[in-house]
Structure formats: C-alpha cells, structure tokens
From TrEMBL:
Swiss-Prot/TrEMBL keywords: Cell membrane, Membrane, Transmembrane, Transmembrane helix, Transport
CDD domains recorded: TM_PBP2
Membrane listed as a keyword: yes
Location within or outside the cell: Cell membrane
Transmembrane parts of this sequence: 49-70, 82-102, 131-159, 180-202, 237-257
The protein's name in its UniProt record: ABC transporter permease subunit
UniProt keyword annotation of Cell membrane present: yes
GO cellular component: plasma membrane
Family statement drawn from the similarity comment of this UniProt entry: Belongs to the binding-protein-dependent transport system permease family.
ABC transmembrane type-1 domain location: 45-258
Listed GO biological process terms: transmembrane transport
Coiled coil: none
Organism this protein belongs to: Teichococcus wenyumeiae
C-alpha cells in the first residue's frame, strides 16, 4: 500500500507521462530542470516555507502557554482540554467553511467587530498581502489542540519533587522553576512536538483547496496544492511526481535535521 505507490512516483518523476496519454517517454532529469525554471513552483515553495515558519513556532508556543495555564489551574482542566482539542477531531473541510464565513470581508463577524471599533477590516482571503497570514492563523488554530495534549502529557510526567528541590535551592519564582525544571524536562516532548508540527505544516492542503485555491495570484499556493494542480488539473503526472519527490526530500531533510542536531540538545530524564 505504501511501497508500490512510492516506487511508481519515483519512476514517473523521470518521464513525461500525462494522464490518459497512450505513450510514455523517459526524460531523465528534465522535469527537475523545469522545476528550477518554474516561477510557479518557486512561489509555492516560498509560500510553504513562510507558512511553516509561522505555524510551527506559533502553535508550539501557544500550546505550551495554554498547557502551563491549564496545568496550573485547579478547576475546569477536562473542559479546557476538550475545547482546545476540538479542532483536531473536527472535519477540516467543515472547519474551513466556517473560517470562510468568519473571515468574509462584508458579512464576516471579524470585520464586523473591526467596523464597530472604527477600523476597516481587510479582505483576509482575497488580498495577496493577508491571505498567507490568514491561512497561517488557521493552521496555528488547527495544530494548537494536538500540541496542547502532548505538552499536558509531558507536564504530567515531570516529578513534583523536582519543583520542591528547585524551590529549596532558591528557585522561588515561577519563571525560574520553568527555566530550571519544566523546560529541560520537556525536552523530549518539545522535540517530538516540533517534528510533528513541522511535518503537519508542510502538508497543508485542505484549507488552501477549500478557501483560496492557491490564489489570489498564487499568493497562497503551496507545494501539495501545486502537486494536485499539476497532476489532476493539468494531468501532468510526470511533472507532479517530480514535485512530490522534492516535497519528500524536504520532509526527510527536516526530520534528519531535528533528530541529528536538536536531539543532542535534549535532556532525557
């Protein structure tokens, strides 16, 4: 189920195969050479990098802050866990439709509130200057609950005796206890959350397909949507397979970087 499609993709990447074509020719590295000249591919690659750069730190920092607040509270822990985890178990397409209404420039509640404050709301999903930021905000919202549950599990696993020992040693403030105990002990959890979040962010597709279709003017075009468009809109499966291999190489490079470089900085208790 996994190996055969992967091998087929590798083989197709070196051909000029088009969906429905009777003949297929071996073109070698021509598809990859075309990628380097393709302004549309470079735009989708840049947009993907920007999206990952916004969603990854935003969703990790937000989830960690919420986890610390929930863990420090005495009431409503189960309720808040369920509320923030709701986007993870919800259908992405349905949630995207809800966001389309919320961010609508005329009837959307967000712009309505801005008008009440005397400000003109932008066209969140229709302007090249705001569309990628809007999608990144939705991506942070989508990943927040998943990361929150992981951080809560990591916080629960930290022995309470370490906080007592740190307080005896002079770490009286909450910030000092976080810096000396919580953050080092959350190292393995943070590494896992970072890896998962970056992979999920690189794989963004649903919200782009439903909300923007890569527009306006390819301002929200990302790698997976480019693969879909080249393969199933233009029927250039050979070229789409070449983009897929580049996408796979990026994911593998991210995983290697995190496991080889960041893993050495992680403290395993």
């Amino acid at each position: 189920m996994l190996l055969l499609p992967t091998l087929a993709t590798v083989a197709l990447a070196f051909t000029d195969y088009e969906l429905g074509a009777a003949a297929i020719s071996w073109v070698g590295f021509d598809n990859f050479a075309e990628l380097l000249r393709d302004a549309g591919f470079m735009t989708s690659l840049r947009n993907t990098v920007v999206y990952v750069g916004l969603v990854t730190p935003g969703s990790i920092a937000g989830a960690l802050l919420l986890a610390l607040l929930i863990e420090a509270g005495t009431r409503g822990r189960t309720f808040f866990r369920a509320v923030f985890f709701l986007p993870v178990v919800s259908l992405t397409v349905a949630m995207a439709a809800a966001w389309q209404y919320l961010l609508h420039p005329t009837i959307g509640p967000l712009n309505a509130m801005l008008r009440m404050l005397g400000m003109a709301g932008p066209e969140w999903l229709s302007s090249s200057s705001t569309v990628l930021l809007s999608l990144a905000a939705i991506g942070i919202w989508e990943n927040l609950g998943f990361n929150l549950v992981l951080f809560l599990a990591g916080l629960t696993a930290i022995p309470r005796e370490l906080y007592a020992a740190a307080e005896v040693d002079g770490a009286g403030s909450g910030w000092e206890r976080f810096r000396l105990v919580t953050w080092p002990m959350l190292g393995p959890t943070t590494l896992f959350v970072l890896t998962i979040t970056m992979i999920r962010a690189v794989r963004v597709f649903d919200t782009v397909a439903v909300l923007t279709q890569g527009g306006p003017n390819k301002a929200s075009d990302v790698l997976l949507f480019s693969i879909y468009e080249e393969g199933f809109s233009y029927f250039r499966l050979g070229y789409a397979a070449a983009i897929t291999l580049v996408f796979l190489a990026i994911v593998l490079a991210l995983m290697w970087l995190q496991t080889r470089v960041l893993d050495k900085r992680v403290h395993y208790g």
